[in-house]
Amino acid sequence: MDFSRSEALHSEASEVLVGGVSSGFRKNITPLQYFERADGPCYYDVDGNDFVEYTLAWGPLIVGSNHPEINAAVRAQLETSYTLGAQHKLEIELAQKMVGAVPGIDQVIFSNTGSEAVQATLRIARATTGRDKIVRFSGHYHGWFNNVLISMDENGNAAAMCGGQPEKEYEDTLVLPWNDLDALTRLLQSQGDEIACVITEPILVNSGSCMPQDGFLPGLIEVCREHGVLSIFDEVITGFRVALGGAREYFGLQPDLSVYAKAMAGGFTMSAVGGQRGIFDALRDGRTVHYGTYNGSSHNLAAAIATIDILSQPGTYERMHGHGNAIRERLEAKAHEHGHQLVTSGVGTAFSMHFDLEEPPLRHADTLAANKEKLAAFRRNMLENNVLTLPDGRWYVSAVHTDKELERTLAAIDASMAAI
Asked: Are 57 and 290 in contact (CB under 8 A)?
């Protein structure tokens, strides 16, 4: 498969665009492709190659690309306004749809990116509790700001993940291993009166699609409430993806706050924070603030409303989960057939594949033992068979992946497993 035009464009871009990319992680992907257009569940690159794609632009394209209903909604809104910096009816409509779809949410605030929305939850938690410390889990991703872009060192302490992160900016962030309720309980028993909140991905999609162990998430919520600590689900990925009501619906749980982005606007820039009415008192009474020039931009809200309407159609999530689970079954079966050890983890709409692991991983540290070289070889073979996947072994399934795409994908899996 030829990627010469992409290579030439990357050389040209690197002269004027740092690294030749707009997000630093993309520069590490091989081959580094340039795309010309996207339609439904397919991408088309500048070298004339077409792909069934399971990247969904790292998650947002939950209803695929060039969707006629989103196009119509945004096109109509552009005739009226781009953004207003003021109030409009779409804010009410989208908020009502979210309150109606997501269990345990009475009110929402709007922002633009997941990173911004996470920071809003941390500020609300600190203003509400009067405490400064926050707890997060190793391997989870909550945006690229200094107070959350951290890992856990060999001594169990918070450590910066890149340069330019002064220690004082994350000195109030505590890091624990995920799926360890005892560790969290011990920490809250000893320091609970200093801790404002505990934030977690309800499914660790960012680092291997690790599932929560039975009792971990409800236990997290309960122990937080015992100590007056706010519980936060970072649903930037799981929101509107694992179910219309996200992880709250999927697991039947109601944390204090939840963060939404990616899938909620079908590819447009949109995020939100939801919770019960009282949790936002700190904003209403002025103890803290939530600002943003582009918050509630009308064309983004139009896209979000259209996306939720599409996802609300009966049978949508059953089809998506069924599509993804069929891929998982074929991956594992063909791997075994060709002498490869492989497990998958996650759910039908968002899952990961792990070569040379014996069991599905429970936390990020478990995924580090997976065979990355074999994964890279498999991904390149899938690319040669016109199926595009993410480099970390993660798969996303959209509402517009059909049996036609599934047939092509299963055939590509068969060929790629045989090739490696």
From this structure: no
Cα dist from 209 to 204, 233, 241, 363, 396, whole Å = 5, 15, 13, 9, 11
Per the annotation, the verdict on 262 as an active-site residue is yes
| pLDDT tens figures, 119-163 | 999 999 999 999 999 999 999 999 888 788 887 776 677 887 778
Provide CB contacts within 8 A for 208, sequence distance 6+.
139, 345, 352, 354, 361, 364, 366, 367, 370, 393
DSSP SS3 for 315: coil
Start and end residues for every CATH 3.90.1150.10 domain found in the chain:
4-66+316-419
The tokens for 163 are 């340069």
**Is 234 noted as a catalytic residue in this protein?**
yes
pLDDT tens readout for residues 274-294: 999 999 999 999 999 999 999
Q: How far is CA 189 from CA 186, 231, 335, in A?
A: 5, 16, 45
Q: From the candidates 47, 97, 260, 262, give the one annotated as an active-site residue.
A: 262
Instruction: Please state at what angle helix 68-78 crosses helix 298-311, rounded to 10 degrees.
Output: 160
Catalytic entry in 234, 256, 366, 392: 234
Q: Which residues pair with 180 in a beta bridge?
A: none
Catalytic residue among 54, 141, 260, 396: 141
Which CATH superfamily groups domain 4-66+316-419? Aspartate Aminotransferase, domain 1 (3.90.1150.10)
Distances (CA, A) of 301 to 48, 127, 233, 306, 395: 34, 28, 22, 9, 27
- CA 260 – CA 266 distance, rounded (Å): 12
Is 45 one of the catalytic residues? no
For tokens 């999927």, the residue is: 250
Going from the C-alpha of 259 to that of each of 6, 299, 300, the distances in angstroms are 36, 20, 17
Q: Which CATH architecture has domain 68-311?
A: 3-Layer(aba) Sandwich (3.40)
